[in-house]
Amino acid sequence: xxxxxxxxxxxxxxxxxxxxxxxxxxxxxxxxxxxxxxxxxxxxxxxxxxxxxxxxxxxxxxxxxxxxxxxxxxxxxxxxxxxxxxxxxxxxxxxxxxxxxxxxxxxxxxxxxxxxxxxxxxxxxxxxxxxxxxxxxxxxxxxxxxxxxxxxxxxxxxxxxxxxxxxxxxxxxxxxxxxxxxxxxxxxxxxxxxxxxxxxxxxxxxxxxxxxxxxxxxxxxxxxxxxxxxxxxxxxxxxxxxxxxxxxxxxxxxxxxxxxxxxxxxxxxxxxxxxxxxxxxxxxxxxxxxxxxxxxxxxxxxxxxxxxxxxxxxxxxxxxxxxxxxxxxxxxxxxxxxxxxxxxxxxxxxxxxxxxxxxxxxxxxxxxxxxxxxxxxxxxxxxxxxxxxxxxxxxxxxxxxxxxxxxxxxxxxxxxxxxxxxxxxxxxxxxxxxxxxxxxxxxxxxxxxxxxxxxxxxxxxxxxxxxxxxxxxxxxxxxxxxxxxxxxxxxxxxxxxxxxxxxxxxxxxxxxxxxxxxxxxxxxxxxxxxxxxxxxxxxxxxxxxxxxxxxxxxxxxxxxxxxx
Length: 564
Ligand SMILES: [Zn+2]
Prior knowledge:
The protein has helices spanning 2-18, 27-55, 59-67, 71-74, 83-96, 127-132, 150-163, 170-173, 184-187, 226-238, 270-292, 321-327, 343-363, 365-377, 454-462, 526-533, 548-551; strands spanning 100-107, 113-119, 136-142, 174-179, 242-249, 258-261, 296-298, 301-303, 310-312, 331-338, 384-393, 398-409, 416-442, 446-449, 468-469, 474-488, 499-512, 517-520, 560-562. The protein is globular, with a radius of gyration of 29 Å. It is built from 17 helices and 19 strands. Helix 1 packs antiparallel against helix 2 (27-55), helix 5 packs parallel to helix 7 (150-163) and helix 11 packs across helix 13 (343-363). The protein has three domains: 2-55; 62-378, Aminopeptidase, CATH 3.40.630; 445-562, no CATH class. The chain is of the alpha+beta class and 564 residues long. Helices cover 35% and strands 26% of the residues. The strands form three sheets. An eight-stranded mixed beta sheet has the order 1-2-4-3-5-10-6-7, with helices on both faces. A six-stranded antiparallel beta sheet has the order 15-18-14-19-16-17, with helices on one face. Bound molecules: zinc ion. Residues 145, 148, 247 line the site of zinc ion (ZN).
């Protein structure tokens, strides 16, 4: 652009300044001369304006963006983006737009850097810059299960469209952090049949697990995968207020375009869960129904036979990403588009859901931020929080829309895939949508870990929990958990045999040596620390064998707590 524009501009300037030096002898010629000068000046101005309008500023970048397509768009929704496609796509957008900055937030097991796009009116992608903006921070994560690929395509298109100026109002209130390809290793293990009867992409999709064979969406407590550790580091660095985890459900054959869930563990902050469940999600469902005629519902799978069918949500354990985010005092939203919509329709569904989630966040930005900040600043010490829960069944049955599918054949593999039919079959079911505590425990002012529990300390620190060390021996009034039973489940799960102990706390006076780790509970992540550390937690460090070595031949739990 530069050379061409400069040449025309210089030509106009030359025309303008050359005329005044043409010699004139009479006054009429002088008047004529100045008329000509003004006319030339106006001509030059006009030419310049036209040129600037046509050629200046973002001509090349904008055309690069308008021509930029995701692999799904380019292939008419036959294929999904590979890792290199994602990286190249985001680089192109970032080069073309000052609203998008790219960086990476960690690594996969095979060492692929995990791409992150930061979308907002900020000067760079650094965590400090993003936090200093003071805006609401929303983290969008796609592809944790790499056969569930439409979130990736939707997230990429969203970043591009924002660079093109769509949704500009959002950037008044927020910065978006977009991780389109979280399970990047799984994404690259493409096969046509990885998702069974899911309706495409018929050119194949990745696998559910990461390259270690682990489900990253069960790894949020134990942090055995580099991907989960990278995500947790991202949370510690950028501290998003809202997180959205994009999946695809191939469970019950219902009539919903999308089912969702929010942090469901009763130990999560009620201010956050109430706003999410009672206002945010109902508003999103109402708007999407009004705009597109699509039904959405809270997540569920159907069990039992009529007339006693039950629609039951996913467990409330923080090993699941959205529940983990909840125990960090943040809005975690699980999105599950329906597997038997076509790939193209699933991308559209994910996009419409994101749009309405973000619209609500934009309209309610200060409330959303305040709910997260309030949860961080409230002291939990001496309060009783849930450690074990059971699902709560609704008092009355409610209408659930069941659907239907028809069989089609993947033309490349010949295997049967299912396509959603636009039918709604209302059925009355019990709803099991929330959980209630069955066991509560007091939150102490501190926990104490012996120095040799390195592996536990490593986990706590990776989660971002603040830990101190005793620099001299301290004699303290404490409580120690005396173990009455200690069991592991026979069946290994995610490489572990989950452990449970029972017993009770006894008051003790102990002198703890210098070097003992102290976890103070007057910190924003106290809720998470409590759930990780407490002896009876149903999804803590003990559950995942992190304390096995210390428990060997021992009748006391190795971590003690303050008496108040
Ligand atoms: Zn999934």
